[in-house]
Each structure stands twice: as C-alpha cells, then as structure tokens.
Design brief:
The chain is α+β, with helices and mostly antiparallel strands. Helix content is 48%, strand content 9%. It has 17 helices and twelve strands. A five-stranded mixed beta sheet has the order 1-2-10-7-3, with helices on both faces. α13 runs parallel beside α17. The relative contact order is 0.19.
C-alpha cells in the first residue's frame, strides 16, 4: 500500500512556493518573465527543474518514456499505487479497469442530478444580496457529486472537503513550518484512508449503486483493482475532482464577470458556453503544474536534465505562451481552436475531465438562467489559494440581478 506521504503530496509535490512567484507577486507575471528569460530553469530551493514554454511542457507531459510519473516509490522500492504516479504498461492496465466504471455514458447520466443540486444550492441564496460563488455553489457542488458517486454519507461531506483542502495546500511560511504542514497532510491522508476502508468493507459485504461498488466489480483480463489501488483511486477522485471543479467554476465566473457585458453576452448566446469554459481552463487553469522525473540524462531547451532529477511542467505557463496562443494574455470567449493543457496531456490526461466539464457547463447554465445580469462587485480584492499547484480564490462575491 502506498505511504501517507505519497498520498499527501499528490497534487502539491513542491510544497514550497517558488521564489519567482513571491518576487513577481503573481504566478502569471513570473511565468511570462521565465518564458522570456529562463524557459528551462533549475530551482535550488525546491530541487526541481521548471519548464515554462508550451512545446517543452507538452514534451514533458506526453513523453512518459523520458519523463516518468513515478516521482516517488514505496519503502520497498515498488511503483506507487497512485494512478497519477504510474507509467505504462501498469498505468494502462489499471486505468482500463477504472474506465469500465467511469464511462462517458455514466458521466452523462449525472447531468440531471447535477442540475438539481445546483438549483437546490441557489435556492438558499437571497437574490437581492451579493452571493459568494465559491461558498454558495462551486465549493459544495463537486463535494456533493463526488460524495454521492462514492456513496459517502451526507453528514461527512464537510470532512471530505477539509481533507481535500489540506492535501493540496502549499507552504505559505506564515503560521507553520514545512514539517508541520507535512504532518497535517499525513494526518489528513491517514483519516481519508481509514474512512474509505470502512466504505470499501461495507460495499464488499453489501454492494450498492455507487462508484465504489462498481470499481470493486470491474475487471480487465480477469484482474480487478486490489484494495491499495482502489483506495488510491478514491483519494485521487476526491482531491482532483473536488479541487479542479471548484476552481474551474469559480475561475470561469471570474473570467466572465471581470469585463462588463461578457456574462450578459453569454446569457444571450449559449452556443458560446463550451468555448467559454475551455478558455477559462486555459486562462486560469485550476491545476497549474505537474511533476515528472527524468528517466535518463536528457536535453531540453538547451539544458541537460540529469537522470532522476525532478521536472515541474508549468501547464499554467504553457497555456499563456505567446508563441502558441494569439493574444495569450487575453480571455477570449470564442477562442477556437484552444489546445490548452489544463487537464494534462498524454497517458495521464485527466480521467475526470468529462465530469469536471459537465459540472461546470451545468452549473453555469443554471446560473445564467437564474441570474442573466450577474456582475462582479467593483473594487473587491480576491484572495488566491495558498497552493502553488492549484489556482483559485477563497471567496468570490458577485452581484446577482434576477
């Protein structure tokens, strides 16, 4: 079984915020500077190479033979049980098993329930007051969806969100040491594993119509998921599913309301909704970077990365690369084509991307129906999440006008 430290590092393997972000004051300003001055750069403090340009990030993310996802191994030296950290052929086999319980048809069937949950959440909002999109909608919606998928009790949803937030939290240097943050992450992952073990044991004894039961039954070539791999997938689905979708919806609303008239334009032209969501994924990617490990000495961008050195591929920078996207620093609601890498690339393209897109599309459609004149509150300052790998805001007050 994978270690708690592996689980706690799943989406934030570089816990320390890169110095360049602090100096520039903004990740996007740092990206622009690094693409121009040092597109492949070694960070001594974090012990990782950073790549910033689209073509280099694409190569790191897609060439698994040169850049391995196995950035950590267990104490016995074996490959991680985490699907996110596997390489083919093992990754292909286990992903095929998971896919059997997570089909496009199964995802599409969730749309009516997602719309129902969205309406229920918005029913609690007074239409003549400002509303917080994060706390009122994008925070609880994916928690409820993932919890129902996994068969989690309603009263445990707040626990799930707390664990998820802790596991992606970055080191801010304000109130605790890196060691204290690591200890909190390990404690959160232990509690998650204990909880999921209880759910799995219940479903083994009495299967139900939920994802855990489906995963227990799914098999490829006569092989099923064993308990360590099932646990790791539940953890991945919880953290990646919750954080990505929460921030996708929130970031999309920021993009659509920060310029007057843009939300109203979308309300009148719903055929633009899909491109608007894809552009939000590019412009404010919920996951900004992923880590790989060099399989051998390899040259990239004129630099030699040595075998076993870590490489952070900054997708958030690649998605704003001026050499790839026209007017890359502008949000264009009708941008097409839009080959962003917000959901990764290659064999590790995000398994939950269809669900994240469905939740965002459904939630935004309901918001547009109910609040066609939604607008940002003038002069407000939005506080970013502390994680260097996850991009989103802590709260997002907006002014609805039904």
């Amino acid at each position: 079984m994978q270690s708690n430290s592996e689980a706690s590092a799943m989406l934030s393997p570089n816990m320390i915020v890169p110095q360049g972000v602090k100096a520039a004051g903004s990740a996007f300003a740092w990206y622009e500077k690094m693409r121009r001055e040092a597109p492949v750069h070694y960070d001594e403090q974090r012990g990782s190479w950073d790549v910033f340009r689209y073509e280099d990030v694409h190569r790191v993310m897609s060439d698994y033979k040169s850049f391995s996802s196995q950035t950590r191994r267990g104490a016995d030296g074996q490959q991680s049980d985490m699907l996110l950290m596997m390489d083919p052929p093992k990754h292909k086999k286990y992903r095929a098993i998971v896919n059997k319980a997570f089909t496009p048809k199964a995802v599409a069937a969730m749309e009516p329930r997602i719309a129902e949950i969205t309406h229920q959440l918005l029913d609690q909002i007074q239409p003549d007051t400002s509303i917080d999109i994060i706390q009122g909608l994008s925070f609880p919606l994916p928690v409820i969806v993932i919890a129902e998928l996994l068969g989690v009790r309603e009263e445990d949803r707040a626990l799930f969100k707390g664990w998820s937030d802790t596991l992606v939290e970055g080191f801010s240097g304000k109130d605790e040491s890196p060691q204290q943050l690591a200890a909190r992450k390990q404690q959160a992952s232990r509690e998650l594993y204990q909880y999921f073990m209880g759910v799995i044991e219940q479903r083994k004894a009495q299967p139900q119509h939920d994802l855990v039961s489906a995963l227990l039954a799914a098999e490829v070539e006569g092989e099923k998921l064993d308990i360590p791999h099932l646990l790791s997938f539940c953890l991945l689905l919880l953290v990646a599913g919750n954080e990505t979708t929460t921030n996708l919806i929130g970031n999309a609303v920021i993009c659509l309301t920060e310029q007057p008239g843009r939300w109203q334009q979308l309300a009148r032209n719903r055929e633009l909704l899909d491109t608007a969501i894809e552009e939000a994924l590019r412009f404010r990617s919920p996951v900004q970077g992923m880590v790989r490990k060099a399989v051998d000495d390899i040259e990239i961008g004129g630099q030699i990365i040595q075998r076993d050195q870590l490489v952070t591929a900054w997708m958030g920078s690649a998605n704003r690369d001026e050499q790839k996207f026209e007017a890359a620093d502008e949000y264009r609601i009708d941008r097409h084509p839009n080959p962003h890498m917000a959901f990764g690339m290659g064999v590790h393209f995000c398994l939950g991307a269809p669900l994240a897109r469905l939740e965002a599309r459904t939630a935004l459609n309901v918001l547009l129906d109910r609040f066609p004149d939604l607008q940002a509150i003038e002069g407000q300052r939005l506080e970013l999440l502390p994680s260097p790998m996850v991009y989103g805001v802590k709260s997002l007050p907006v002014q609805p006008r039904p």
